[in-house]
Amino acid sequence: MAIDRSLEIPGQPLERIAEPPAGSAGVRGRRLGTPRLVVACMRPGQWIKNAVVLAGVIFAGKVLDPASLAAAAAVTVAFCLASGASYLLNDVRDAEVDRHDPRTAGRPIARGALSPRPALVCGGVAAAASLLIAGLVGDGSVAIVAAYLALQIAYSYGLKRIIVIDLVAIALGFVLRAAGGGVAIDVRVSPWLLIATASLALFLGCSKRRGELARPLRPGVPARPVLARYSPVQLDRAILASTAATLAIYVGYAAYGAPTRWMLITVPFVVYGMLRVVTAIRSDPAQTADPTLLILRDRHVLASVALWAACATVVILGTA
């Protein structure tokens, strides 16, 4: 079977996909490979975003409470499955566009290694499992995860094509994660933190769109519809505005919304981490097409996140 070389990414040749004879070891190998392809489409590398759920445990001072940790961990797993299901749906919906984008042409569905039907079935199973796990924690957790799934379906079916609304939908997804963490352990999440989470998510969303806009495309290959409505200058201003807003809101929380003003000692880590990412965006916007990978590959940002979490935990536990 011939391979369409027009989809080949430089340095990353497309995988050869041929139909082996029925009943052969090759067919059995493909069947065994389907779960791996499904997992790849669910993007485990992006599940780090769901760690936002655990923030509620930290800020509620329940890090040493086994029951709270178990509940938060369960909801985190539920969000991982829910986000994985949304990625499967998104890849099915965007398969044709992904085939023409060098960054996404190698995804299993886009390159034809995984057909849409099993992808959607597995997505449905993952979504159902996420609701089941959330149900083990409580009705409130089910409602939050269900709201997240509904948001992701709406995003895949149209919200991501509407300028600004696409960014708002991304931010709302993070807010639901943060709220889910509080609901899981039956504590009220500070409005300061929810607003800061939304602002930070807007920053990440703007960074993603800026990176996508800066990425070179092959001649004749159209950009994604929503990108045509953004401009580099517009996104650069939005990134700076969301950076300033996030920092101002977090400082306000540390000074006036936290249980103790000792939370102010965590501010430098937040400032350093965000400015480090902003600097990376300004120097090479294309690398922020996937902000999660940018953060995970930067040891300085990871260190600032780790130090922030450690200091926040110590301060909160010291006042509990």
Question: Which tags fit this structure?
Answer:
globular, 320 residues, single chain, mainly alpha, 2 domains
Q: Briefly, what is this?
A:
The chain has 320 residues and is mostly helical.
Explained architecture:
- The protein has helices at 25-41, 55-59, 66-93, 95-99, 116-137, 139-157, 165-184, 191-214, 232-257, 267-283, 291-297, 299-319.
- 66% of the residues lie in helices and 0% in strands.
- The chain is an all-alpha fold and 320 residues long.
- It starts with 24 loop residues before the first helix and ends with a helix.
- It has two domains: 35-189, UbiA prenyltransferase (Tetracycline Repressor, domain 2); 190-209 and 231-320.
- Residues 1-32 have low confidence and may be disordered.
- The chain is built from twelve helices and no strands.
- The radius of gyration is 21 Å and the shape is globular.
CATH topology of the largest domain, which one?
Tetracycline Repressor, domain 2
Could you name the CATH homologous superfamily of the largest domain? Answer: UbiA prenyltransferase
Give me the CATH architecture of the largest domain, please: Orthogonal Bundle
Number of strands: 0
Distance between the termini: 65 Å
Tally of discrete structural domains: 2
- Tell me roughly what share of residues is in helical segments: 55-70%
Strand content: under 5%
Low-confidence stretches: 1-32
Q: What's the CATH class label of the largest domain? A: Mainly Alpha
Number of helical runs?
A: 12
**Which value, in Å, is the CA radius of gyration?**
21 Å
What overall geometry do the principal axes of the alpha carbons give? globular
Estimate the mean pLDDT confidence. Answer: 85
Major sheet summary line: none
